[in-house]
Amino acid sequence: MKQLDSAGDRQRASGVRRFWSNVAAVAYKESTVVRHDKALLATVFAQPVMMLLLFGLALSNKPANVPWLVLDESQTALSRRLVEEVSATGYFLPPQSVANYEEGRAMLKTGNALAFLVIPSSFRRDVERGQPQVQLMLDGADPLSAARVGGYVGQVAAAFQARPNPVVENRDAPPTASSGPIDIRQRFWFNTTLRDRNFFLAALAGMLLTNLCLSATSLGLVGERENGTYEQMLSLPTSPLELLIGKLVPYVGLSYIVLTFATLASGIAFGIWPRGNWITLYLVTLPFILASLSIGIFVSTLARTSAQAVFITVFFILPSFVLSGSMFPYQLMPHGVREIGGLLPLRWYQIILRCIVARGGGWSEVALPALALVTIFTVIISAARWRMKPRLG
């Protein structure tokens, strides 16, 4: 019995050794493949670097480079000094003057400014009486930035000190001075309660479509190549451009289904319905879908394997979410980073979404970002066609 038990133990030990030997052989083979896949290794090691730079340098909840408007109806030294003190905080861009209230509100609606300061014509007299008031209108579509910008302007107003009044009846009497604080009448447009969900849900459709379009189409040509049907596809009497557009069409319909679902779900569950025209929303969504799908097709022409396509796609999806302004306001990003985000379709589409959904904008307000999306689509689809041309020859 002892001999039988010993033989069984040896067999089990041999089986365990064989098992781990086979595992080690397969692991060595796969390691060799990965080690020679330079494109895969480059993307794997580049991702941590990209995320480190994005979250370490590009992103911040602290307002900076804030675009703002000023309607100075007072046109006095005191009103100009108030504007200068707000600018001196370092959080704001140089103020842009507007001619009237309607012009300032229109610029807030298009998202070209986050704050609109209105100084009344009676400002100097109110300062002398010790009851100065100004009005500050803020774009509440971005609740975090609106609250912080309003707080910074409020701090300046609370610390504002008027200079001694040079006009006194008795020159021998000590000069009188009127001091702050200035009463800031804040008003939040487009999101009066400053709910964070309004900010995120307004751009939800853009993030869903970006993920869908890039993930689906990036594996298109790679899958054909790996399945052995790529040559058969090339033998068809079609041009490269016809092949590319034909591959995009099915996903356009699927993308509109996702858009409709995201819009209806936000409205039914949270009461966030588009304030603008639905037809405009659907029309300007088409160039975004095409631009995003073309990026996926372009990635598919670059990658040789499905793994490479997935990793390269991440380089577009993650920066799109972070740099576009869907998660963090792009207006507050430093120069250089902000311009890089402008190369991504989601940057322009989230501007369109916030304009239509949150601000009730129309075609005239979204025409420029829509044109930018058409340009991006034209450039990328041309690059993808150029990449396919040598393979077809």
- Give the helix tally: 16
Residue runs with pLDDT of under 50 for 5 or more positions: 164-179
Distance between the termini: 74 Å
Q: Give the CA-based shape.
A: elongated
- What is the H/E order? HHEHEHEHEHEHHHHHHHHHH
Across the major sheet, the strand order is 2-1-3-4-5
Count of the separate structural domains: 2
Mean pLDDT: 80
Strand segment tally: 5
Helix content: 55-70%
Helix/strand-derived category reads alpha/beta
Largest sheet: 5 strands, mixed
Rg for CA atoms: 30 Å
Topology overview:
Elements: H1 2-36, H2 38-58, E1 68-72, H3 77-87, E2 96-97, H4 101-110, E3 115-119, H5 123-128, E4 133-139, H6 143-159, E5 183-189, H7 196-202, H8 204-217, H9 220-227, H10 230-234, H11 240-270, H12 278-302, H13 306-323, H14 337-341, H15 345-358, H16 363-392
Parallel strand pairs: 1-2, 1-3, 4-5
Antiparallel strand pairs: 3-4
Helix pairs in contact: 2-13, 8-11, 8-12, 8-13, 8-15, 11-12, 12-13, 12-15, 12-16, 15-16
Describe this structure in words.
The structure is a single chain. The chain folds into two domains: 68-189, abc type-2 transporter like fold; 196-392, no CATH class. The protein contains 16 helices and five strands. It has helices at 2-36, 38-58, 77-87, 101-110, 123-128, 143-159, 196-202, 204-217, 220-227, 230-234, 240-270, 278-302, 306-323, 337-341, 345-358, 363-392, and strands at 68-72, 96-97, 115-119, 133-139, 183-189. It has a five-stranded mixed β-sheet with strand order 2-1-3-4-5, with helices on both faces. Helix 8 runs antiparallel to helix 11 and helix 8 runs parallel beside helix 12. The protein is elongated, with a radius of gyration of 30 Å. Mean pLDDT is 80; it is low at 164-179.
